[in-house]
Design a protein that fits this description.
The chain is mainly α. Helices cover 68% and strands 4% of the residues. α2 crosses α3 and α4 crosses α8.
């Protein structure tokens, strides 16, 4: 039996908007976050607000501590290093697999995504590089093209949203947005060439560059 398509619940919508607010820094890392605050911010009752916070906790974007309550994640440099090491290995493998498995339609979508990014004033000026979540995100599209369900689940469930926060911050460094776009283009070229080794190398190089930029940014922050 085919199940009907269901609409997003109110909690779904609040969770999505709260994720974007955290990624963009509108809700700062390390700040306390409460049901009442979320309810007021998004004009909903405390029930959907509570559920949205629980969902972000499962994504690793919110943590809880005794006597402190819920807080937006604020990673240490050691945590970040571990995440980037994991990300380089997993996304490198995803890109290698995608080079062999991606179909023409998925490749065209990635190309169209980069074309849309390139005309964003913030990217063109080198000011920032913001990517919406889900299938509109370049990295998510490559993970999906890998065809490996477990790899996709690990990337999208365990580290994807947390890494989006730090990817966006990294891209705020002058010149990094333009460099990241060029690195993305090199990745797509390797996918178009159906060259698994080149694709993995291109993705790993991109993530290492992102890590170096993030590491320097982290050291310079107050």
């Amino acid at each position: 039996m085919i199940r009907p398509v269901t609409r997003q619940t109110l909690a779904d919508q609040v969770a999505e908007r709260l994720v974007e607010a955290i990624v963009l820094g509108e809700v700062p890392s390390g700040s306390a976050i409460s049901e009442n605050e979320v309810a007021v911010r998004f004009g909903v009752s405390r029930g959907p607000a509570r559920e949205a916070i629980f969902r972000l906790e499962s994504k690793g974007l919110v943590t809880r501590a005794v006597h402190v309550g819920a807080q937006v994640v604020d990673l240490t440099i050691e945590d970040l290093c571990s995440l980037f090491e994991m990300r380089e290995a997993l996304e490198g493998m995803a890109c290698r697999l995608a080079a062999s498995r991606i179909d023409g339609e998925a490749l065209r979508r990635l190309e169209a995504t980069l074309e849309q990014h390139a005309v964003q004033p913030e990217v063109a000026s080198g000011k920032s590089y913001y990517q919406p979540g889900g299938d509109r995100d370049f990295h998510f599209g490559i993970a999906a093209a890998s065809g490996n369900a477990r790899l996709i689940r690990t990337l999208s469930s365990d580290i994807y949203d947390v890494m989006r926060v730090y990817r966006y911050r990294s891209a705020l460094t002058p010149g990094r947005a333009v460099a990241a776009l060029e690195e993305h283009k090199a990745i797509v070229e390797s996918l178009r060439a159906r060259d698994p080794a080149r694709a993995e190398d291109a993705m790993r190089a991109h993530i290492r560059a992102s890590w170096e930029n993030t590491r320097h940014t982290f050291k310079e922050r107050p």
